[in-house]
Amino acid sequence: MSIAAAAAAVLVTSSIGPALAQAGEHSHGAEAHHKLTLNQGKKWGTDEPLRAGMGRIRGLVEPQLGAAHNGKLTPAQYGELATRIQTEVGGIIAHCKLEPKADAVLHLLIADLGDGTSTMNGKNPKQRPALGLVKVAKTLDQYGKHFEHPGFKPVGTGH
After folding, report:
1. pLDDT of amino acid 55
2. CA 61, CA 5: separation in Å to the nearest integer?
3. Which residues, in sequence order, are CB contacts of 114 under 8 Å at separation 6+?
4. CA distance linking residue 147 with residue 159, whole number of Å
5. Residues 104-137: tens digit of each pLDDT
6. Which residue, of 17, 31, 120, 144, has the greatest Cβ tally within 10 A?
7. Do the beta carbons of residue 50 and residue 92 sit within 8 Å?
8. What is the pLDDT of residues 70-105, one digit of tens each?
9. Are 56 and 88 in contact (CB under 8 A)?
């Protein structure tokens, strides 16, 4: 199974939404990687749709972390935020033009974003929605460590 197909399965089963179901159609035939890696010690290249989408996700997440840590976000607010993140991820997937190895690494991050938004939506009753938001934030930080994105700053979850 390609990483894109695996990520699609995770995203669909985590109720990430129909916009992301197309990830299964987005396959470059790359062999599955099971951990985040660099490109021979360097960050992977990106394209404008990826940088723009990840920048918008970061812009959605960072301002909400303080409220989440203080227990001030309602389930509805987590759900709305998760939906907005899912929409951005759907756009990233729809416009992905990365080379196959970079794409495979990106899909690991997309799966983690799906897990985070699923938790934010209450799909994992054993975890508080705030933990889903923290997972999304940490995934953004991993993106910044593994992909070339000038000016991208860590979110700084304090965890």
Report:
1. 97
2. 26
3. 7, 10, 11, 14, 16, 20, 86, 89
4. 21
5. 999 999 999 999 999 999 998 899 999 999 999 9
6. 120
7. yes
8. 999 999 999 999 999 999 999 999 998 999 999 999
9. yes
- Residue 42's φ and ψ, nearest 5 degrees, are -115, 160
Q: Higher-confidence residue: 62 or 25?
A: 62
User: What mean pLDDT is predicted for residues 22-38?
Assistant: 53
Tell me the angle at which helices 48-69 and 129-146 cross, rounded to the nearest 10 degrees. 140
Cα(118)–Cα(89) distance, integer angstroms: 13
Q: Which two tokens stand for residue 125?
A: 């009753």
Q: What is the mean pLDDT of residues 11-19?
A: 38
Question: ∠ at Cα 56 (53, 58), nearest 5°?
Answer: 110
- Beta partners for 44? 147
For 125, list phi and psi in degrees, rounded to 5: -65, -15
User: 100-120 and 3-13 helices cross at what angle (nearest 10)?
Assistant: 10
CA-wise closest residue to 73 among 116, 125, 130, 113: 130
